[in-house]
Design a protein that fits this description.
The protein is of the alpha/beta class. The chain contains eleven helices and eight strands. It has an eight-stranded mixed β-sheet, with helices on both faces. The longest helix has 27 residues, at about 155-180. The protein is elongated, with a radius of gyration of 23 Å. The mean pLDDT is about 85.
Length: about 300
């Protein structure tokens, strides 16, 4: 079983990420671990897997397993309000209205959604879940959106870290010039600099967690078909370039040996080609194979049955 304290399940849409992530979480809690399962996919169906509605706060769904579905619209609104509160402490009262108008416009710009989602993810890891620590969850499992969206989200610590570094350098220069202009040599108080420094610290802390192979693993789910195999190849290369380690692959919906019939025989021929490609391209990755089921996953016993294929 994949044992790192932080897991991200990713892959192309429709390959079974949610079922696989939920099955792994079930197996982990059945083995005695305390687990938090978090969906960052706007098209939530994690609650459907457990047959109950979920929200933005942890809900107990089985054993020591809690689950969250992050509402991106609510997180974006919360994020914008938090930025406004920070700005109110740093600008003159006559400028607040214009500053908030600019912030509202920025909240509708491309990237704001990812920034809000990332902020919530940082809060879960650093302030709420404390994965791997004595007072926290043993494991935090993220069920993510399809590949492209997830890669943008996971590379945000690197991108935002560089962006905040630039802001801090400009703020340092501004404060130095101000100190020279005042002529007293004292570094002026700067709430904005303090806010940026704290944000930089949190981004660095999360990035350290994500780059630590003892803490974090990325699990890619794919089916033995041409498009998922090719998308997985590209995604792994991109994650490798950002030093984000993919710890395992789950090859889902593999035709079971007992399946028969002419149609299945033809599908099996096509599948054999893709399974060979998976063996070739991902030979250095840990791999789990989950057979196609005759019926849908509908309850906890079904999830446990899937989890039985995710063991070493």
């Amino acid at each position: 079983m994949i044992s790192e304290p932080i897991l991200f399940f990713s892959g192309k849409g429709g390959v079974g990420k949610t079922t696989t992530a939920a099955a792994h979480a079930m197996a982990a809690t059945d083995s005695g671990q305390r687990v938090l399962l978090v969906s960052t996919d706007p098209a939530h169906n994690l609650g459907d897997a457990f047959g109950r509605p979920l929200g933005g706060e942890p809900t107990r769904v089985a054993g020591n397993l809690d689950a969250i579905e992050i509402d991106p619209d609510a997180e974006c609104a919360r994020y914008i309000e938090q930025v406004k509160q920070n700005i109110r402490a740093t600008v003159r009262s006559t400028m607040i209205e214009e500053a908030e108008r600019q912030i509202d416009m920025a909240g509708r710009a491309p990237g704001a959604y990812e920034a809000a989602l990332f902020d919530r993810m940082v809060g879960i890891l650093l302030d709420e879940a404390h994965p791997g620590e004595a007072q926290g969850y043993d494991q935090v499992v993220f069920d993510t959106a399809p590949t492209g969206h997830t890669i943008r989200l996971l590379t945000l610590p690197e991108l935002m870290g560089a962006w905040v570094d630039g802001l801090l350098r400009r703020r340092t220069e501004h404060n130095r010039e101000r100190s020279q202009w005042l002529g007293d040599g004292e570094v002026p108080e700067d709430p904005l600099y303090d806010l940026l420094s704290e944000r930089r610290r949190r981004i660095a802390a999360v990035r350290d967690l994500m780059l630590d192979p003892a803490m974090t693993a990325f699990v890619f789910v794919l089916t033995p078909e041409h498009l998922p195999v090719e998308e997985t190849r590209r995604a792994l290369a991109e994650l490798d370039s950002h030093r984000l380690r993919v710890g395992a692959l789950v090859i889902n919906k593999v035709l079971p040996e007992e399946a028969d019939g002419t149609f299945v025989a033809r599908r099996r021929e096509a599948e054999a080609e893709h399974l060979a490609a998976i063996e070739q391209h991902f030979a250095d990755r840990r791999r789990y194979y989950v057979p196609l089921r005759a019926a849908d996953v509908r309850d906890l016993d079904d999830l446990r049955a899937v989890a039985g294929h995710l063991r070493d």
